[in-house]
Structure formats: C-alpha cells, structure tokens
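Work Package 3 (structural annotation) set out to generate three-dimensional models for the target panel prioritized at the project kickoff. During this period the team completed the workflow that converts sequence records into discrete structure tokens, so that structures can be stored uniformly alongside our sequence database. As a representative example, we reproduce one entry of 309 residues exactly as it appears in the project archive.
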Amino acid sequence: MEKTHLLILGSGPAGYTAAIYASRAGIKPILYQGIQPGGQLTITTEVENYPGYPDGVQGPQMMIDFEKQAARMGADIRYGLATKVDFSQQPYKVWIDEELEIEADAVIICTGASAKWLGIESEKRLNGFGVSACAVCDGFFFKGKEVAIVGAGDTAAEEALYLAKLCTTVHMIVRRDQMRASKIMQDRVLKTPNIKIYWNSETDEILGEQKTTGVRIVNNITQEKTEIPISGFFVAIGHEPNSGIFKDYLKMDEAGYILTKPGTTKTNVEGIFAAGDVQDKIYRQAVTAAGTGCMAALDAERYLSEKFS
C-alpha cells in the first residue's frame, strides 16, 4: 500500500495539465497514465487548433510534450490502470492493475471518453489516414473535398453541418429511415443542400490502402451496395465516458458522464474532482480538457490546504 496527498487518474490534456499545476503548487501528485497514455490524441495525426503550436503538431508528440512538462515540474508519472476504487471514506482507496493499493486524500479523475467505432477492419487500419471520430478536430484537412459521416443523433447532425461549411459534399449514412437527432437539427441537415443522406444504409467497407479513397455502403432493405468516392470518413455514433469504476460513488448523467458542480470540477464526493472528457460531453477538445485540468488542480489545492494544513 502507498499513500499520497493527490492522485491523478488519466494522462490526456486534462490529467497532464492537472499534474503540472499541482506539482508547481508543491503537492507532488502521483499520476497513473491509464490504458492509453496520452488519451485520444495519441490516435490523432495533425493537431492545428491548439494554441502555442503555430505550425501544428502531431497528436502523439503533443502528449509527449505534455508529459515531459509535467515530469519536469515534479509529477510522479507511472504506467498503470485504475481498476477499482473505494470512495466511501477518507483516505480514498484506488487499486492499480488490481494489485497495488493507493490511499489518497484527494483524487482528480481524468479518465476521458472513448469514441464508439463501427468495428470494421478498414476503419481501424485507416484511422488517422482519412478516418476520424472528430469533425471539429479534423474537418479542416478536408476543405473543398467530399467526405462521409455515419450517425443519426445530434452529434452526427452537428458535425455534418460543420463539415458542410468546409466540404463540397457531405454523404451522411443513416442506419434507419429516420434520424434520432432533435427536430431542429434534422431540419437544418435536411435544408443544407450539400448534405446527401443515405437512409436505411450501413457502412460495408472504407476503401483505400494508404489513405481513405471511398466508402462502400449497403442498403438494409434492398441489399444493394454503393461505392462513394470520398477523402474523409467521420464516425459520429457517440462517445462512452471511461467512468464505470466510479458509478457506485459518483453522480453521473444517463450516459455515464460524471456530474460536476457548475463552475467547478467538484463531484458529489468531497475531495474527488473530475476534469476533461469524462465530465464534458459538449466540447470534447484538447484545449477545454486542459482548462478543466487546471481547474481541478486549483480546486484540489484549495481543498487540501483547507482540510489538511
């Protein structure tokens, strides 16, 4: 067993930023990187919308930079995954890889959210080479080109409308004969002339070897297959927050996103804070995750100084 004042779970922009701020405050946090060190940015290629990188940066390199900065400030960064927690009383207990038990006076949860994927081989192979789960992140790279997007909810509608401002044609693949999006979002999509909807259709295969060149879709009713030439393929079927191990202690919304008190990163349990995509289902950007990571460290610092000084 090991004891620490502050434990940070997760190593995306939120986790590393929290570690930077907490370390500079002299707290000496321990950070566990989780199953995917660096988070979703490690499967992103070019990042052009994060301040401070005027020429852009590769997602994995950006996370290496974050990690180096947190380590330079004194954060104890470790590889390992939180597999069980006990937040019923202080000190809080967290088990890493089902073996090591850590006791912490405060915990910052930055475990992120994972994009839901279709589960086809070509989607995985071409991820980062024309296949993306974030239109706001990667849509700019397909300016003036044809793209496809799969999904039927509000997120898919919002991303289709975003892409329609940049791309010549947005081919929207909808599994049923109607969308799940709100009425106002559906109306906007239907009124946008360069969004072409394929009803009752699913993705059969994403085409291309080194980069995405097209998509083959199949009609669920007729079984007819159609190949559409595209440069980008966007998956917008939702995200799943990595919050399952906390469900017995923390309040969450119906989708599993951890609820925080407005204007703070405080959860319903004193001394437990949440930052980044595990509590943000609206923005889901690196810069907003980093911002909440800063907030969480400041909230934790105040809490620890008031409670234990």
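The domain at 117-235 is CATH 3.50.50.60 (FAD/NAD(P)-binding domain).
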